[in-house]
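Side project, low priority. Logging it here so it doesn't get lost.
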Amino acid sequence: MTQELSDEALVKSYVASGRRDEAIFRELFRRRREDVWRVCYAFFGNPQDAEDFTQQVFFAAYRKLPQYRHEASVRTWLHRIAANTCKNELRRRSRRPEGFEAGMPEDGGVMAVAATAENELVLSRRTDRLALALKRLNADERRVLQLAEFEGLRYAEIASDLGVSEAAVKMRVLRARIALKSAYETLETKGVSK
């Protein structure tokens, strides 16, 4: 039954029931989990962080669902919660003293790479550089590229998600692409692949 309803109808049904209907919320989670994960991934560039913060976003949405005002689509509302949650975490992290990154090898050892062909190795290095270049962008640049390039959203949809005009979105996407190209070229010039 809940699978036939739109996101907005699901939320209305949830609020109208006067109780926390787990089935309705589970359906919303099933539909929008991947969208929210991609938003979080755009901020952190790390699948584990994206997964952790996807859970936090839905926990926050669960608490805030009765306050949803239908001014934007449920998808846009969830994207805003995700973006705000991730921005808050990035601010919190920036206030922490720098230390060793989790998961970095302590001995600085080199992992052997078994490449079957030279072009495979070149492609791997380019992919590593691109991932590193993406990490060097600020969170807003990564976010707008994620929406435009990886999720394939139209500028109007991105404008709605971000609460800005389409012209502003076009400019942000252009600037993010230029920043990514510059970061990639810098890494390529230096020969950095990790």
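Brief comment: The radius of gyration is 20 Å.
Revisit when time allows.
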